[in-house]
Amino acid sequence: MPRVPRVAAVLEDRPVEGPKRVLLAAPRGYCAGVDRAVVAVEKALERYGAPVYVRKQIVHNKHVVSELEARGAIFVEEVDEVPEGSHLVFSAHGVSPMVKEAAAERQLQAIDATCPLVTKVHREATRFAKQNREILLIGHSGHEEVEGTAGHGGDRVTVVNSPEEADTVVVEDPDNVVWLSQTTLSVDETMETVNRLRSRFPNLQNPPSDDICYATQNRQVAIKKVAADADLVIVVGSANSSNSVRLVEVALQHGAKAAYRIDYTDEIKQEWLDGVQTVGVTSGASVPEVLVRQTLETLASAGYTDVSEVETATEDLMFSLPKELRRDLGDCDTGGVRGGRGKGVRDRD
C-alpha cells in the first residue's frame, strides 16, 4: 500500500452540454470515533515508541493504515501474534470479551480505541443477553464490529444480514426478541429489515436509542441531496469500509445516474466523465480530507473547477482519548478529539 496519497491523475477536459460543476457533500470524511482511534495510535507511538501493535485495521482505510505503518504501527489479525507485554490497540470497530481476555493472558498493555457509539451497542447486547432476550443483530457477518457485538451477546445473538434474511430468520420466542444493528449500515435498508422483522414478530423490541451512528446517518442524508442533482457521484473510501460502500448504494438509489467508490484519485476513469455536467463528491467516515482534496484537483484538470458545498448538517462531536492513554499521558495532551461537526459534545471513556 502507498505511504502517501498518489500523484493526482490528470484527465482530459472534454466538452459537455452546459457548465461543469462539482457538488461537495457535507458532512463527509472523518467522524469523531475514527479521529479518536487514529489519534490514539499516534499518541501511543509518541508515548511508548515503536512498535505499537494494532488488532485489525484501526479504521477501514488503506491510506490511514499505510501512514500509521510508516510511523511504526504493526497491524495483526489476532492477539497471539503480539509479543507478550507489548502495547496493543483495539480498533475502532470493537472487540469481543474473549479478545480482551486473550490479551490479558498475554499480559499485553491494551488500549481500547473502540468507538464509544459501538461500545454503547456492546452494552445493550450484554444487558439484553443477561435478560435472556433473543437478539437479532442487523449487520454483515464477518465484519469486525458485528463479531465484537455478537461476542458481547453470546449465544443469544443471531445475525440478520439483509431484509431478505428477515423473512426467514427463526426465533425461539417471538415475544422475547429485540433488534440491534451495526453502526455503519444504510439507514433505509436497516429500517426495511426492521419492518420485515416486525411484520413477523409484532412484539419486536427496539433498542433504547438509535444504533446507527450520527456520522453514518449524516453522510447518507448529504449524499441523498447531492445525488438528486448529480450525473455522477464519486465516493472516496476503501472497499472494506461499510459506510463508504453504503454511500455508493444510497447515491444510486436517490438519483445519481452513476456512482463509483475510489481509494485514490488516480482510479478515476476518463469515461466516467463522458457527458457529465455535475459530479457529486463525498467520502466515508474513515477518510482523511487530503484524499478528497486530491479528488477535487483531478476533477479540476477535467474542467470541473466550480465547486459548491452542499451542507445538510453541522457536527460538533468530541470524544476523549482512551482512558489507558489518558492515564499514561498525564495532564499533557489528553484533550478530546473531534471528527466532523455534529450536535452536542460527548466526553466518554
Automatic annotation (TrEMBL):
Isopentenyl diphosphate binds at H60, H93, H143, S241, S242, N243, S286. The keyword Phosphoprotein does not apply. Dimethylallyl diphosphate binds at H60, H93, H143, S241, S242, N243, S286. (2E)-4-hydroxy-3-methylbut-2-enyl diphosphate binds at H60, H93, H143, T183, S241, S242, N243, S286. It holds the Pfam family LYTB. Binds 1 [4Fe-4S] cluster per subunit. Keywords: 4Fe-4S, Iron, Iron-sulfur, Isoprene biosynthesis, Metal-binding, Oxidoreductase. InterPro entries: LytB/IspH. [4Fe-4S] cluster binds at C31, C115, C213. It comes from the Bacteria. Its cofactor is [4Fe-4S] cluster. One of its GO terms (molecular function) is 4-hydroxy-3-methylbut-2-enyl diphosphate reductase activity. Its EC number is 1.17.7.4. It catalyses: dimethylallyl diphosphate + 2 oxidized [2Fe-2S]-[ferredoxin] + H2O = (2E)-4-hydroxy-3-methylbut-2-enyl diphosphate + 2 reduced [2Fe-2S]-[ferredoxin] + 2 H(+); isopentenyl diphosphate + 2 oxidized [2Fe-2S]-[ferredoxin] + H2O = (2E)-4-hydroxy-3-methylbut-2-enyl diphosphate + 2 reduced [2Fe-2S]-[ferredoxin] + 2 H(+). The keyword Oxidoreductase applies. Catalyzes the conversion of 1-hydroxy-2-methyl-2-(E)-butenyl 4-diphosphate (HMBPP) into a mixture of isopentenyl diphosphate (IPP) and dimethylallyl diphosphate (DMAPP). Acts in the terminal step of the DOXP/MEP pathway for isoprenoid precursor biosynthesis. This is 4-hydroxy-3-methylbut-2-enyl diphosphate reductase. It comes from Gulosibacter bifidus. The gene is ispH.
